[in-house]
Amino acid sequence: MHLLCCPWTRITSFVLPLDDVKSWDVHKIHSLFSEPVVESILRTPLFEEVHEDKLIWNLEKHGNYTVKSGYKHYIKKKSVVQSYTVEGEWSSLWRICAPPKTKHTLWRVYRGCLPTRVRLKERGVSCPSECPICLNEDEDDWHAFFGCSVNRQVWNEAGLQAVIEPRLRQLNDVKSVLFEICINESKEVAGSVAMTLWCLWQNRNNCVWNGVKDSAKEVAIKSLHLLEEWCAVNKLQDHNSQTIGALSQSRQTVAAENQFSEISRATEQLRWQKPHEHWLKCNVDASLSPNSSYTGWGWCVRNSEGNFVAAGTNNCLHKLTIEEGEAMAILEAMREAISQGWPNIIFESDSKVVVDAIKAPPQGISELNSIITNIKLLLQCNSNFEIKFTKRQANMAAYTLARAAISWSSRSYFNNLSSDSSPTLLATITTVSKTSLEPRNHLQNRHLLTTILTNPPSFIESSIVKL
Ligand SMILES: [Zn+2]
């Protein structure tokens, strides 16, 4: 349901439709709402598959609320983004050469959320305010990293005195000092600073929680070792990937052969494949009109020889999502297969979302899920129905039918298409047109279908060319 701007919407199929008929009560809606709202309501599809009213979350396909989508929706609002934007060259922090955990500590300092004792007291936590390392002064950000005499010694022991000291004379807050280093020093030097800062905070925590603290020299050495270890592991990983590259070069012939077979496999996936003997294959697809107001879908059944068996199209003048359209195409094709008595049939769709949802355990409350539930029921009742995902390039017959269906006013059904000449084809199409319910533009449709079936675009599989 896409009626309102609010992401929460209600499936209102039983609020305003006519009794016993799945269509909107146009008179009642006109009497209750303004014209733009009326238009929105009437464009909202009413699925037979939906049986009860539910509140659904529109920003997820399954209709259930998730924190992730809620957060994204909230943050998307321009005013919110602006008020939460924090000034600063943040990219200079993320590019430094240091483990992610040290960058995270730096980020916490930048954002003023490191739980120093002064900050904890400001927020109502009952705790002492003095520095746990020197026990002389209050522990705020500045003291914890630069003001504390013990910690100041760590920077000297780590050989970073020349990087730190001049900046401490010019700048008066931790954030500015660290930003200045990340922006103007090399990413290796900035990495050393980040690692030392992380070790200082670790030493402080160890002192608070375990009553153990290292000397300035020990903290500096630990920082040096940790950074060396991290760099060594990274270099090893780089070396390994280069070795793999060199090895593959020395096996060029084998690689070329493998590549060829991979390309062959990939090309095969891009072509429509015939089903096994005694099986049919039904390709389905959906398409939205250029302004997304209408949805068309089509299906095309072919046999193990690759010959045409039947095809159908339908459309909806309501605004469906592409996934809802794909699911409707599958559902209608399955119902047709049951009524025609086709027992062994593979349904192929190029919508991975829909195919995955059909194969996944039941979840969600959205309209799409109601349609999927019906598809699952039909699959359970028909053991030789299979559902598969296929690449779009191998699904062009259904795609073409779906595209054509957008401009047709009603359901169409095609069968007995002959493989020879145009006159036979035209005669068949005329028959087909008679069986369909008054196409919106009969001549145009006839021309379009002829074009589709006799002069298909080069990307349409060879089997449809035979039509
Ligand atoms: Zn101190």
From TrEMBL:
All copies of domain RNase H type-1, residue ranges: 283-405
CDD domains named in the record: RNase_H_like
Reverse transcriptase zinc-binding domain sequence ranges: 65-155
One Pfam family in the UniProt entry: zf-RVT
InterPro entries: RNase_H-like_dom_plant (IPR044730), RNase_H-like_EbsB-rel (IPR052929), RNaseH-like_sf (IPR012337), RNaseH_domain (IPR002156), RNaseH_sf (IPR036397), RVT-Znf (IPR026960)
An annotated Gene Ontology molecular function: RNA-DNA hybrid ribonuclease activity
PANTHER family: BNAC02G40300D PROTEIN, RNASE H TYPE-1 DOMAIN-CONTAINING PROTEIN
Name of the protein in its database record: RNase H type-1 domain-containing protein
